[in-house]
Amino acid sequence: MPVYVSPFEAPVIPDIGITELVFRGVETRKDAPVLIEGPTGRIITGMEFIDRVRRLAGGLAARGIGPGHVVALMAPNIPEFVIVFHAVALCGATLTTINPTYTAREVRLQLIDARAELLIAFAPFIPTAREAAEGTAAKTFVSIGPAEGVAELADLFGPPMMAQVPVDFARDVLVLPYSSGTTGLPKGVMLSHRNLVANALQTRPHITVDPGDAILAVLPFFHIYGMSVLMNHFLSSGGVVVTLPRFELEPALRLIERHRTPWLIVVPPIILALAKHPMVENFDLSGVRSVISGAAPLGAELQQACTARLGATVVQGYGLTETSPVSHVVPLDRVTPGAAGFCVGGTEMRLVDPQTGAEVPDGREGEIHLRGPQVMLGYLNNPEATAAVLLPGGWFRTGDLGYVDGDGHLHIVDRVKELIKVKGFQVAPAELEALLIAHPEVADVAVIGAPDEDSGERPVAFVVRAQGATIESAALVAYLQPLVAHYKQLSEVRFVEAIPKSPSGKILRRMLKGTL
To answer: Angle 268-276/300-310 helices, nearest 10 degrees?
Structure first.
């Protein structure tokens, strides 16, 4: 079976933790900004950052938090997110990052699965955190910012921890972001220090950072893309991270102009706004040299439109939560519209028939399998799902279909998996289906992703009413609203006589997509 080997040199991966790698970059800017809170302009220097990480790590350790313990963090992109992340890493514990737009139900499921015992939340989210933590092991709350009856983050600070608590950098779990993987409900993706260190070094030759280069962190840190590429890569390379709690076009453009950010690391819906929104003309974006899109496929036409609008080089990459995330990049001097590029250094790829596992000839579509030091350890508490994707020989089955063109670029064609991508976020149809089928007036249901210019895809439910039921679309949309995050909300409900299924009972989603 052909194996596609990276054309780039494999990095030498040191036996260190991700925080030491970040400290090496931050120490070059001891008296200069390394974190800037975008909306307020609040600055944290390199020395202040290192001191706060060490003191928070020391305080956590003094409270018994260390190897074998799990801390949950529920916060938007603010400087304190970065401090908490690295304090937990330094004290040897595991961090599970929670989407702050989750409902209490969704947060509770993650707390239970991760077995988190301490929950650190941004003050406005404390009410949700309290409700979510009922009946879980998370008995202790800490607030980022003042919240009634809850200790604040500064109260956790203790004597500084001057060295990494010993852990197995290759085998111990550092971070547990949640992903739906190739199918089904969200699963904890077990990533080690070595996974994150490797991916930061694999990314470094392709997203080059000059000392003091600023990056606008609009992609959420709780998601692996923002966590690894924006947060850890830029800090470890001597850059400055400007945080924005949520993406809004005008504030983002203002910060890009103010800080003259040479790189934009974004997702396709933001590319669309940069290419077409008239507001862009009101700002000086001449500092932007390069734009990288990820988390969902970027069409060639939109890529070219953004290039023409900004006068910057626009490329896309490819990766998954399970690969920490970057597996493919397009070199800036070899731009091919629509391509996802080549494997990063130290990574290999093969393409196989997803049904038979047989070799796929060059130029033909196949399921993408990857192998490299950035591949996850597995899914938490889910050996069956782990065995389904981590194959003999160290190969990871991505669930994505692609082909390699004559120049060696990977092109992503489709997903074997059933996930819906909404603005780069994963939505598992199975989760929405399980909630909808519980409604007494629903007999059967299937959820698929419909193409959407603004968000990439949008969830659409096909529903079979129960006998005698008269429920309408608006009622089902309203029923789901308090149960799931905003990006999982249904955009449309269509009532049908039956859900098309295979003889084995599998929903034939392609048939439903053909009706859109």
So the answer is: 50
CB atoms within 10 A of CB 506: 10
The per-residue DSSP string of 312-361 comes to SEEEE-EE-GGGSSEEEE--TTS--TT--BEEPTT-EEEEE-TTT--B--
What pLDDT does residue 268 have? 87
Burial class (CB in 10 A: 0-12, 13-18, 19+), 463: buried
Q: Which candidate, 179, 190, 184, 234, places its Cα nearest to that of 36?
A: 234
Kindly state the tokens that stand for 73. Answer: 């963090």
Q: Which helix (H) or strand (E) holds 43?
A: strand 43-45
> Which CA distances in Å does 398 have to 166, 349, 395?
32, 10, 9
Predicted confidence at residue 199, as pLDDT, reads: 98
Q: Mean pLDDT throughout 14-42?
A: 98
**Mean pLDDT (the chain, rounded):** 94
8 Å CB contact between 492 and 515:
no
Confidence of residue 185 (pLDDT cuts 50, 70, 90): confident
Cα 508 to Cα 177: distance, rounded to the nearest angstrom: 30
Instruction: Give CA–CA dist 165/67, Å, rounded.
Output: 8
Instruction: Please give the structure tokens belonging to residue 500.
Output: 């098309």
337 to 289, 409, 454: CA distances (angstroms)? 17, 10, 20
> How far is Cα of residue 69 from the mean position of the Cα atoms in its chain?
23
For residues 310 and 119, what is the distance between their CA atoms, to the nearest angstrom? 42
- What pLDDT, in 10s, does the model give residues 465-477? 999 999 999 999 9
Domains of the chain in sequence order? 1-14+262-417 (3.40.50.12780), 17-168+211-241 (3.40.50.12780), 420-513 (3.30.300.30)
Q: By 3-state DSSP, what share of the chain in percent is helix, strand and coil, each rounded to 5?
A: 30, 25, 40
Please tell me the pTM assigned to this model: 0.89
The size of the chain, in residues, is 516
